[in-house]
Amino acid sequence: MPPPGRCATLRALMGGPERDAKTPATHGTPLPHVAPKAPGSFWVRLREHDHTQRSLLVSILALSVPAILTSLGAVGLFQLVDLYFLGQLGPDSLAAAGATNQTLRQLLFMVILGLTTATQMFVARYVGEGSIDRAEHVAGQTLLMGGAIWVVVSALGLLAARPLVSLVASDPAVIELGVAYVRVAFPFLATAIFTQLAAAVLGGAGDTTVPMVASFVQTPVALFFEWVLGFGRLGFPDLGLAGIAWGAGLGGVAGSLVLLAALFRSGGRVHVRVRHLRPDPPEMLAVLLFSWQPALHMLARTTIVVFFMTLAGRLGGEVQAAYTIGLRIEMLPIMIAFPIANACATMVGQNLGAGSLPRAWSAIRVAYAVELVVMWPAAGIIYLFRHALVGSFTEDPEVARLAAEYLAYSSVILGFYGLYFASFRALQAAGDMRSPMLISIGVAAFLGIPLALLLALRGDYGATGMWIANLAYAAVNAFLMIAWLLSGRWARAHAPANASS
Q1: Following DSSP, what letter does each residue of 331-349 receive, concatenated?
Q2: Among 74, 162, 177, 314, who pairs with 219 as Cys (CB 3.0-4.6 Å)?
Q3: How far is CA 209 from the centre of its chain?
Q4: What does the pLDDT read at residue 361?
C-alpha cells in the first residue's frame, strides 16, 4: 500500500513543513541509516563518507572523483574511440551517427534526465533524513517507469526509423545509414536508460563508485564489439555503421549487469527488493511531478542542439560533420564539470534533508571553487590545441577548419559552464525545478534560435553565425542561472526550520 502523507512529503521536499529529521517516513518497515563500515579500501572509505557532517571538500572529491573517472576514463574514452571508428567509416556515417545521437537520442535523454534529476533529489533527501526504505521504494518505482519508457522508444525505433531520421537529415545517403543505425540502437537503449537511473539512485545515496566500476566493464566490451562488427574483424561480419550500434548496445548490457547486481544485493547504501517493484501510482506521480520541469529545462538545450544540427545539415554535410566533431570534443571537459555539479546536488539534497541550510550553502561555495579550478585550464587547453584535437578525427580540411572554429567559441563557453552546471543542479536538489526550466527555455526561444537563424541564414556568417549564436545563448543562460541561485530566493522555503545562511 502507498505510504500515507504523500502531500506532506511533497511539501517537505519543496521546503514546506518538515517532519522531524530523526523520524523515518512510514513506508513498509523503515530501515536505519547505513552505518559506516570499518576502514577498508580507499574506495570503500570514499563511498561511506558522511556528507552531512564531515569535510565538504572531501565530500566533493568522494562524490565527483569516481564519476569523473567514469566520464573521462570510460565514457570519454568511448566517445573518442567511437568517433574515430565513425570517421574511418566515412563522412556519411559520421553525419548519420551525429544526426541521430545528438538529436533523436537527446530527445529521449531529455525525458530520462528529468526522471533522474527527480530521483536523485528524492533519494538524497530521504537518505539525509534517515528514511532509507523510502529511498529504496523511490528507486524501485523509478526503474519501473524507465522500463515503460524503453518499450515506447523501442517501438518508435523499429517502426518509425525513417520518418525520425528524415527530420534531422536531408542527404539520402545519410538517411539510409541513419535508419539502419536507429533500428539497432533504439532497442538497446534499455541499457542506457537503466544505467542513467541506477546512477541517479546510487549518486543520491552518496555512492558513485559502483557506476564507475560498471563503466569500466562497459567501455572495453563496447569498443571491442564496435571494432569487430563495424569492420568485420576476427571472422565477424562487416556491418558498418549498424555494427557500431550493435557494439555499443552489447557494452551497455555488460555495464547494466554490474549495476543490477549492486542495486539488488544487500549491504549497499540502497537495496531494492521485490516489494519496491510493485507498482505504486501515487509514488510514481510524486516523482513525475518533479520530473517534468527538469525535463523541459533540458528540452531547451536539446532543442538548441537539434536545431543547430538540422541547420548545419542545411548548410552542408561538412558543417554537420564539423559540428558533430566539435560536440564530441566539447564533451570532455563537460564530463568533468557535470560530476562536480552532481556531487553538489547530492550534498545540497542530503544536507537539506538533515535540516542544515547553512551547510547546503557551504556545499555550493565549495563546488563553485572546484569548478573554476578545473574548467578554466580545460578551456585553455581546448583553445590552444583545437587544431590538433580536430585533426585526430578527420582528414577533410574544410571539416577540420569548421570544427576548429567551433571549438574556439566553445572554449569561451567552457570557462563558465562549471558554475552554470553547479547552479542549476543545486537549485534542482533544493526542489526549485521551475526556475532553471524557465530561464533555459526563455533564453533558447528568445535568443539562441532567433539569433542563429538571423546570422546563419539571413546574414553572411554561415556556420560562424551558428557558433556566435551558441556562445550568446550559453553566456546569457549561465549568467541568469548563477544570478538566480546567488539571490537566495530558493533558500527561503527552507529557512523557517533552519538558521539563516
Answers
A1: HHHHHHHHHHHHHHHHHHH
A2: 74
A3: 17
A4: 92
Output b/e per residue, 327-349; b: 16+ Cβ within 10 A: bbbbebbbbbbbbbbbbbbbbbb
Per-residue confidence (pLDDT) for residue 366, from 0 to 100 = 93
To the nearest 10°, report the CA torsion of 459, 440, 346, 202. Answer: -80
Question: Residue 296's CB: how many other CB atoms inside 10 A?
Answer: 19
Q: What is the pLDDT of residues 325-383, one digit of tens each?
A: 888 888 888 888 988 998 898 889 888 888 888 888 999 999 999 999 999 999 999 99
CA 13 to CA 126: how far, in whole Å? 9
Backbone angles phi, psi at 4, to 5 degrees: -75, 170
The C-alpha cell that represents 233 in the structure block: 574483424
CA 142 → CA 56, 177, 278, distances in Å? 29, 34, 11
C-alpha cell at 321: 560533420
CA atoms of 295 and 88, how far apart (whole Å): 35
Helix boundaries (H) for 206-276: 209-231, 241-263
| Amino acid 63: pLDDT | 81
Q: Which of 82, 114, 119 is nearest to 218 (CA)?
A: 82
Residue 382: per-residue pLDDT: 94
**Dihedral, CA of residue 146, residue 152, residue 157 and residue 158, to nearest 10:** 120
Instruction: Determine contact, residues 242/98, Cβ cutoff 8 Å.
Output: no
- For residues 186-223, b (16+ Cβ closer than 10 Å) or e, as one string? bbbbbbbbbbbbbbbbbbbbbbbbbbbbbbbbbbebbb
Cell representation of residue 42 = 580507499
Q: Which of 252, 240, 288 is nearest to 138 (CA)?
A: 288
DSSP for 258-304 reads HHHHHHTSTTSS----GGGGS--HHHHHHHHHHHHHHHHHHHHHHHH
- Locate 201 and state its grid cell: 539512485
Which residue do the cell numbers 542545411 mark?
Answer: 314
- For 45, phi then psi, to 5°, come to -65, -40
Nearest 5°: the CA angle 284, 290, 293 is 130
Q: In the prediction, which pLDDT does 289 show?
A: 84
> Strand, helix or coil at 214?
helix
